[in-house]
Specification:
Elements (H helix, E strand, L loop, with lengths): L21 E3 L6 E3 L4 E10 L12 E5 L5 E6 L9 E5 L5 E7 L4 H5 L7 E9 L5 E8 L11 E9 L5 E8 L6 E8 L5 E10 L2 E16 L6 H7 L5 E8 L7 E8 L5 E9 L7 E9 L1
Antiparallel strand pairs: 1-2, 3-4, 3-18, 4-5, 5-6, 6-7, 7-8, 8-9, 9-10, 10-11, 11-12, 12-13, 13-14, 14-15, 15-16, 16-17, 17-18
Length: 291
Amino acid sequence: MKKSFLPQVLMGMALSLPSCLIIKEKDDDKVKPHKTKCTIEEVRFIADSTYYSSSGTYDRTLYFNSKGEPTKLAVDNPSTGNAPQLFVYNNKGWFTQWIYYFGNSPSDLDAPVQVNNIFTAHLYEHDTKGNIVRDSFFISMGMPIHSHYYKGTATTYTYDYKDRIIATRFQDEWSPGTVTKEYYYYNTSGNLETVATYDSSSYGEMLRGNSYYTYDNKPSVIATSKTLMFLNRNYSKNNTLSVSSDPNVYPMTETYTTEYNAQGLLVKKSQTLSPVEGYSVGTSFVKYNCK
């Protein structure tokens, strides 16, 4: 399965989270808002105790701003492998930094960013439309995040005319000869159907395998959050119900069980992974502010 780039509260749940519910008519290119406008306030992830000996170890909460974009991820038990996260935007509202932080509480995440508390950081570069075209990943460990000595990896992105990611190129800058490429294929329904992963070297490209997606028939509720669509690498019209892969790519099948409220909004999403293998498994709950 295609490896997720998301913090655990986003895995699965973010594939179907709204910042404001939008319905797109089947034969109309103009986006029409649902008559009830709801904005996400937070998403709470509760890890399944069946898979973890320490209750609450991986529980966390994702908070959103008034525009429906994620701003911080607070974790109940911070650690190096389970760090709080910050989502930083510039004055244009463009997503510019994704920071793993050594904060200890939600209030720490509200304070000005302290360099010595930064563990790792993604720094993003944009095109003239605000699409992210380059992602530089820095291992900071309390050092200035622009230090080239700590620079780890770089990813570049290619978009289609609908501003959907259709190709990525990932390079480990510690091993310049190692390049991974992914190609994203959408079906006629407007849903991401297949992701093809290739390993590239001086000998050429070799297909590592494909990941396959299935969907429900509900309007995709993350379509109003540019940040969530980018982090998921998914710009589909409907909500993901399963992801599976060829045996030679992350051999895992991820399925979701969903619940909706009376307004048709997704309020609960549970994950099932087979095999589990180092991934947090649990249930996410969404809280809305509806007008």
